[in-house]
Amino acid sequence: MQSVEVMDVAPELLRALAQQTRESVSLGVLSGHEMVFVYREVGPQSVRVSTELGARRPLHATSIGKAYLAGMGEGERSTLLRQLQLRSYTPHTITSRTDLEEDLNRALERGWTEEHQEFDLSSTCCGAPIYDHTGQVVAAISVAGPADRMRAQTNIIGPLASATAAAISRRLGFEPRHTLRQVATAGQS
Description:
Elements: H1 2-21, E1 24-31, E2 34-41, E3 56-58, H2 63-71, H3 74-83, H4 97-110, E4 113-116, E5 123-131, E6 137-146, H5 147-151, H6 154-171, H7 180-186
Helix pairs in contact: 1-6, 2-4
């Protein structure tokens, strides 16, 4: 139900984000311990990252998965992190819970997640969580591109991803009165 609501309001904003960043933009929802891509907007660049709709990605090794994790309340996130098998996909994959928690804390501070060749050596991504009217994370977005091109752009693309996720969240009735860290902390109550 929640993914249907997100699909009603997100496409217009995701198309704009793809045009603005010129990179591929994805929307994903949680399914078990993975994210499933439910929407994809391909950017206009001739070289781009391609992922099929319905593809599944690990939470710990992707910006979209990390965004979902970062958006969760601390207690819920802690429980889920204990259940994850932190499999290595590349030499850059975070496979330590402590390192993953530190990475998520950095994301909470800056307002978006980053994934630097952790799932696929050819790509780098930025992501952000989407909240519903109750303040619960219901989806996440990512902006993905070739690692060489994206590496220099994360400080530009990350805030754009965060702003787009916030706009989608507002359309779902979320009141953005707090920072990402305050929302995640409040979710533990």
